[in-house]
Amino acid sequence: MITYDTALNVFHLQNKTTSYVIGILPNGQLQHLYYGARIQPENLAYYLDDTNKAAGTVKYYEQDHKFSLGAVDQEYPVDGIGDYNEPALSLFDATSERYPDFHYDSYEITKVKARNVKVPGTFGDANQVESLHINLKDEQNNVWLTVTYSLFSDTDVISRQATLKNEATEPLQIHRMMSAALDLPAQPGAEFIDLSGAWLRERHVQRTPLVQGIHAVGSTRGASSHQHNPFVALASPGTTEQQGQVDAMLLVYSGDFLAEAELNEWQRPRLLIGIHPAHFNWRLMPGENFTTPEALLVHSEHGLNAMSQQFHQVLRQHIMNPKWLQRPNPIVFNSWETAFFDFDAEKLLKIAHKAKKLGADLFVVDDGWFGHRDSTASSLGDWIADSRKFPAGIADFSTRLHAIGMKFGLWFEPESFDPDSDLYRAHPDWVVGRLNERHSFGRGQYILDMANPAVVDHLFDQIQQAIADAEVDYIKWDMNRNITEAYSNYLPAEQQGEFMHRYMLGTYDLMGRLLQRFPDLFIENCAGGGGRFDAGMLFYSPQIWASDDSDAVERLKIQYGTSLVYPIDAISAHISAVPNQQVGRQTTLAMRNNVAKFASLGYELDPNLLSDNEQQQIKKDIEAYQQDADLIKNGRFYRIESPFESNETAWMVVSPDKRHALFGWYRILATANPSPKRYLKLAGLNENATYQIREQQAQLTGAELSTWGIRLPYEFNATNNDTAIVKGDFTSVVYHLDVK
Ligand code: DGJ
């Protein structure tokens, strides 16, 4: 997958569909030559004949007016040496900025990437992954930079990472160190695509045409956030789900991030992604290394669906724990929207019994089971069951749940504590923020200093004890507020700029240690809904609670947007009661089921309060979901019609062998006098195969379904409308397609 042309000093990285070409300039600097559709360049020298000359730029050599760094496409641009665009690296000594100028020294190719539970990142065995490490040296400052590229045999993603080593005798300060920079050819009219939104409205697809200057999204909240996601794509004008050229980057990280595109004076874009420099200042002592989080790069020649499928593949095969790959995620009943803080063991067991009868696998006791927590005002940090709610103890509750064949899930919010908690009273200095100064509240709680190893040790002891005592099978790991007044009472003054990153490293360490202690523990991630839906968390959690908004109509947008990057089985989607808690909307059980079906299905309602018909329907829905679970878990997902562009949404998932597919169509509001006959073109099917559409008793070829389309339900809303299949607002259908 990786070759080095010694005559031309060029590295050629190739996977099935893409090529990535890196050159070493005559002066030893690293040049970016190409990233795009796979090529077999026989005349590479032609592309190296590049004088890099551009008017109006600073020359790198005084005597050589042909060479300007500002006009070179670079692999890892550095601040302050002639390229004025956004840099990947900015370095200081104790007082002022240093200007490293890296030159090629050597390279190494390695196979195998072990799964290291301390920090999220890709992994693979010798047949799956090959990595190129290019070592560069800056003689003047005595600092080394290694840029690493990994390729995978089963996906066309390229991962990138950078490591800086201080070989000088004085400490250095890293002010900015991005995971990857990508200089691309000019594409007039290119669009910046990102996933943005808000709490309850996470990961909506946003498209912005680029103009000269910088366009960026990011987070300085200590979490990847509800507002933005650590992902960015640059798409050629007019890119759709099925066509167009896309270059995208995803950061494997859950904390502060910056994703930006700068369009320079020649309309050439530079994409960058990495830790946000705003609250980042890492002290690098002599002899120390710093390695960035990994960035995953995708180039697609066939639109956004092809980009998403590459991300899904790399996340499933090389980020998520392989343990869960072949096992369907459990069907969960969760106590939160069912009972909020108002429950005790008997009430929950009554719900769990009924849930079991309906086919659920697992019952989660959400917030409120510990300390004396009857509201958000107290007890976070005291992970001991509340004896008023669990008089016989939480272990007894677990035993009773296990006795009826239900697994047991328990909610934690490990990274926070409340002022009214034994933990805060015992360790006020574990708070994030300077002691004796004002601290902002969020949901009434403070953040724990996860950069302090004593805090991580304490949490590990308490949580592992709770898990062991109550034989917990699953934990829901929540995180409900963002960081303010960032300051660690543990770190020395010179290292305060490391706090935000060390916070994430401490959190990852805690998750990794718990998973080492309990290898079968299933962690569902959550951060006030979808505030940390990112590849860093997916490394530890096979699924993430996508949003605190469980309304089916809102979820169309959230799930559609999330699927741009993340596999649908990683999206935790629960059916809740109506009217919906967040928006007050009344949707049918069928609509709620048909949306949640294209995700990891669960429930947040009390089935005892439902009619017999509704209970029977849920039982059937769970059975049907279980039959389709493999398709959801391992299939290829295609977005067909976007809720951001119309009143309708459609998507489908196709099995890897293309023999089975599941198609979902949703209409938000009814329209008067709709078109009588409508077909929608499907994607991903075997054109030569004949598919039986189960719900339509029809047989059609893959070619017909992809070119002519599948017939949408007949609508008719005049007065005499008996034959209409869908009527009213919030309607949907799910069709199964199977090769005969
Ligand atoms: C926020 C989560 O997203 C909810 O599902 C629930 O767990 C609450 N926190 C509990 O406080």
TrEMBL record:
Residues 648-737 form the Glycosyl hydrolase family 36 C-terminal domain. This is Alpha-galactosidase. It comes from Lactiplantibacillus fabifermentans T30PCM01. Pfam families: Glyco_hydro_36C, Glyco_hydro_36N, Melibiase. One of its GO terms (molecular function) is alpha-galactosidase activity. The active site is at D478 (nucleophile), D548 (proton donor). The keyword Aminoacyl-tRNA synthetase does not apply. PANTHER family: ALPHA-GALACTOSIDASE C-RELATED, GLYCOSIDASE FAMILY 31. The keyword Cell membrane does not apply. One of its GO terms (biological process) is carbohydrate catabolic process. Substrate binds at W199, D366, D367, R443, K476, W477, D478, M479, N480, C526, D548. Residues 28-284 form the Glycosyl hydrolase family 36 N-terminal domain. Keywords: Glycosidase, Hydrolase. Its EC number is 3.2.1.22. CDD domains: GH36 (cd14791). It catalyses: Hydrolysis of terminal, non-reducing alpha-D-galactose residues in alpha-D-galactosides, including galactose oligosaccharides, galactomannans and galactolipids. InterPro entries: Aldolase_TIM, Alpga-gal_N_sf, Alpha-glycosidase_related, GH, Glyco_hydro_36, Glyco_hydro_36_C, Glyco_hydro_36_N, Glyco_hydro_b. Belongs to the glycosyl hydrolase.
